[in-house]
Specification:
It is built from 12 helices and 9 strands. The chain is of the alpha/beta class. It has 2 domains: 203 residues, Spore Coat Polysaccharide Biosynthesis Protein SpsA, Chain A; 113 residues, no CATH class. Pfam families: Glycos_transf_2.
Length: 333
C-alpha cells in the first residue's frame, strides 16, 4: 500500500504563480497526498486562493499564520504533517506530474531515507525536458555528504526536489530568520539518513524571477549567510571525524569569502566592513588552533593577505579540474 506523502508549500506574495504550483501537485499520478499550504501572512490574495484550493480538493490543508519567513513556514508545515514522507516545494516552482511517484518508488525500491531528483532553471513554461541518459546514484550517508563538495552539490543541498522519511525531521528544523536555510541543515539530514538515492532526471521546474529571495544577482548578505552555514557544516564534520571532508568544506567557505571580498572591493565597501573582516579573523584562529591540514591554513592566510591573487588562483584551479575531468570522460567513452 502506498504511504501518505505530505507536500509542504510555503506561500508568500506569489498570487501570480500559486495556481500553477498547486495544480501541478494536485495533478500528480501519485494520489495519496496531503498538500499543506502555509500562508505566511501574505498581504495579497494568496490566503483566499489557498482556501479555494481546500474547497475543491479534500487533500489540501491550509495554515494561516503571521509572517515568519520561509524557514518558519516550512517548520509549521512539518509540525502538522501526517504523512510518513515529506516533500517541500516553493510556491513559484512546479513539478512534473510523475515527480512524487518516481521519487517514492526510488526511495522504496532502494530502501533509502531520502530520494532526490535534478531540476531545471527556467523563466518560461514551454519546456521540453531531456529524458535520455538518466542516471541513478545510490549513496551511503557519508557518500551523500561528500557530494556537498562534489558534482551533485546543488540538488542535494536544496530543501526541495526530494522526498524525505519524516523521522529525519524528528529533531531537525530549518533555522528561522536566515537565508540559505537549507545550507544549515542539509548535512544533518544527509548524515542522519541511512541511504540516499539520486536521479539525474529533471522533474522540478525552478522558476527564475528577480524578486525572489535568491533571484537578485550577487547578494552580499546572502553570501555571508552561506559562509556561516558552510563554516557550521565544517564544524559538524569535524565533530563526526570526517576531517578530509571538513577541509574541503572550509575551502568552499574560503572561495565564497573571496567572491565577497572581490565584490566589496569593486564597490569600495571593504574598508568599512569590520564585521566581515572580524568574522574571517575568527575563522583564521579556528584554523590555527585545530588539527587542520597545513596547506589549508596557508591557503586561508594567503586569502586574507592577497584576496585578488588567490581569487585568480582558485579560478585557474577549478578550470584545470574541469579540463582534467573532461579529458578523463572522453577517454572512458
Amino acid at each position: 500500500m502506498n504511504n501518505l506523502v505530505s507536500v509542504i508549500i510555503p506561500v508568500y506574495k506569489v498570487e501570480e504563480y500559486l495556481n500553477r504550483c498547486v495544480k501541478s501537485v494536485l495533478a500528480q499520478t501519485y494520489r495519496n497526498l496531503e498538500v499543506i499550504l502555509v500562508n505566511d501572512g501574505s498581504p495579497d490574495c494568496c490566503g483566499e486562493m489557498c482556501d479555494g484550493f481546500a474547497k475543491i480538493d479534500r487533500r489540501v490543508r491550509v495554515i494561516h499564520k503571521k509572517n515568519g519567513g520561509l524557514s518558519d513556514a516550512r517548520n509549521a508545515g512539518v509540525e502538522i504533517a501526517s504523512g510518513e514522507y515529506l516533500t517541500f516545494l516553493d510556491s513559484d516552482d512546479w513539478v512534473h506530474e510523475e515527480y512524487i511517484e518516481k521519487l517514492y518508488n526510488l526511495l522504496i525500491s532502494t530502501e533509502s531515507d531520502i530520494a532526490a531528483c535534478n531540476f531545471i532553471r527556467t523563466s518560461r513554461e514551454d519546456i521540453s525536458l531531456n529524458t535520455s541518459n538518466i542516471e541513478i546514484h545510490e549513496f551511503s550517508n557519508i557518500e551523500a555528504l561528500e557530494q556537498l563538495t562534489g558534482k551533485f552539490y546543488v540538488p542535494l543541498v536544496v530543501a526541495w526536489g526530494k522526498i524525505y522519511h519524516k523521522d529525519l525531521f524528528r529533531t531537525i528544523r530549518y533555522p528561522v530568520g536566515k537565508v540559505h536555510e537549507d545550507e544549515y541543515i542539509a548535512h544533518h539530514l544527509l548524515f542522519k539518513a541511512k541511504k540516499v538515492v539520486f536521479t539525474t532526471e529533471q522533474m522540478l521546474y525552478y522558476w527564475q524571477r528577480k524578486d525572489s529571495i535568491t533571484g537578485v544577482g550577487f547578494n552580499v548578505s546572502n553570501r555571508i549567510y552561506a559562509t556561516h552555514a558552510i563554516i557550521e557544516r565544517a564544524a559538524f564534520l569535524n565533530e563526526v571525524g570526517l576531517t578530509k571532508l571538513r577541509n574541503k568544506t572550509y575551502k568552499t567557505a574560503i572561495y565564497i569569502y573571496l567572491q565577497i571580498v572581490k565584490y566589496k572591493k569593486m564597490n569600495n565597501e571593504l574598508k568599512n566592513d569590520q564585521d566581515l573582516l572580524s568574522q574571517f579573523k575568527i575563522l583564521n584562529l579556528k584554523l590555527r588552533e585545530g588539527n587542520y591540514n597545513s596547506n589549508l591554513k596557508i591557503r586561508y592566510k594567503l586569502c586574507c593577505i592577497m584576496p585578488d591573487v588567490m581569487n585568480i588562483a582558485f579560478k585557474m584551479y577549478y578550470k584545470a579540474i574541469k579540463l582534467i575531468k573532461g579529458n578523463v570522460e572522453k577517454r572512458s567513452v
